[in-house]
Hints:
Strand order of the largest sheet: 10-9-8-7-6-3-11-12-13
Order of helices and strands: EEHEEEHHEHEHEHHEHEHHHHEEEHEHHH
Oligomer: single chain
Number of strands: 14
Amino acid sequence: MNSKSSNSKVYLSSIPLPEFNLWKKIRKENLSSSFNLEITARCNNNCRHCYINLPANDRGAQQKELSFTKIQNIVDEAVDLGALWCLITGGEPLLRKDFFDIYLYLKKRGLMVSVFTNATLITNKHIDLFKQYPPRDIEVTVYGVTAKTYEKVTRLPGSFQRFKQGLELLLENGIKVRFKAMILRSNLEESVQITKFCKKKTKDYFRFDPFLRLRLDRDLKRNDEIRSERLNLAEIVAIERADLERFGALEKSCKKLIQPQFSHKDCRYLFRCSAGSGTFTIGYNGFFRLCFALTHPKCVYDLKNGTLRQALQEFVPKIKQLCSDKKIYLDRCSKCGLINLCFWCPAHAYLETGKLDQPVEYFCQIAHARVDSLLSK
């Protein structure tokens, strides 16, 4: 990677962060406890809001997918470096014909394994696998509770019926299921019913997210679709206030989330999160990413030309030292006391604007709307 980008005025600091020395020392002993493994970007659905999906029969995408052998090598190295947990994700991971081989290899290497799926491809064969080698959990996305709404999101006739059948197979056989839901314009009218459906089906866990990320491949047409599905400020606040558990958690953490002391700090560093520190993502195409959303070409590492150890020990520290001298960043995001209530981060800034250090007005407006909501109760 280059040490300076003339377009975004992002550069590598010559002065390491003080905490880096301790961070690097910890890394040498145990480089990561978990990682996300994208085994495909392909999906059998075509959801309006999806930030990654490609057609199920996309040969180009399939040819870029890591081979089972390469996945084995990466997994071996991750385990040797201290990994304990792995999330298999996509796309729709069950599309891979060698899904069973991949899953079993992760389990036999002693990893706790979770799987993200839309559940539409679940068969008795998957159930037999999960019963014999139980996953940590299977996390299923719920797009709607009626065929009309569900298939408005997925754009695939018959997908709702297949979703219900797959989900029932999982639940009837005692497989641990967790639920998540993306709330978008196409399913907003069913958001309350979606929450009730999920909480009724499991006592363990449910989360929803009103924030729709833009495409990792920066596809302009698909990004326009995603923006059209985004909720406005009032809708986001109303949904969060309607969920007593979620709003209660925000309210309880209000003092921690609103940190006015940030406004007195002068910090040029872009990355002040835990990206690359406790977990990382392996893309379906073999590129190492500090987090699933960070796809800036100078912030990804090609594992086909290097090792996981090199990525963690040599590449990650360089990315974590990226700085900016852009005035709008230094005057706004860098000092903002509402950063924990905002969707802004360098990864999301790049997806939205093409720059790591550019503020995003939509995010800023949401953060202020959340504060007004929390303080008005």
